[in-house]
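Dear support,

I submitted the protein below through the web form. The confirmation email said the job was done, but the results page showed an empty box. After a refresh the structure appeared. I'm attaching both so you can tell me whether what I see now is the final result or a partial one.
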Amino acid sequence: CFAGMCKANAAATVQVLVTRFGADRIIFSGIAGNMTDKVGIGDVVVGQKVLYHDAEDDMIAQSAPFTACYEGDAELVKAAMDACSELGVKAIAGTIATGDQFVGDSATKAAIAEKVHPDCVEMEGAAVSQIAAKNGVPCVILRAMSDNADEDGYEVLVVRDFSIKEYVATATRIVAAMIERL
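What the results page shows now:
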């Protein structure tokens, strides 16, 4: 399904999937700003660890699931990495940081890097992971690098009317290969 942009939309979608449709695993995919030199544009970060970069972690951890850092389900992470390898998609199992802001300048990128040291930054993954964990549902986040989370990001994604058509096809192949493994 399509969750929509931002933490609230993603969290609501996961809760509906679990409550109404009985989802017993969540694979969430999309694009992100690259924060590392380990991957490049078009490569994938598989969320081994997912956290917020714009939240009060201590306050979040005061209620179930009593953490503000979410580990990707080991079986799902392995299935994603194996699928990427099989399909020739460069991928790393890494850290994904979530916040309700588009990161499109070097100063913001540097502040986030210093605070949480992520491999990429996006707007939904930690919320998806938090609600999945709250419901005891295994989860993994997959992110293709669309830009470098710097001044050129807005140009790449908005001005040039960025299309994720190629990544959607790749994500579909990755998820299909994951499902075969599971």
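Response: this is the final, complete result; the empty box was a page-load delay. Helices lie at 7-19, 57-60, 74-87, 106-116, 125-134, 152-159, 165-181.
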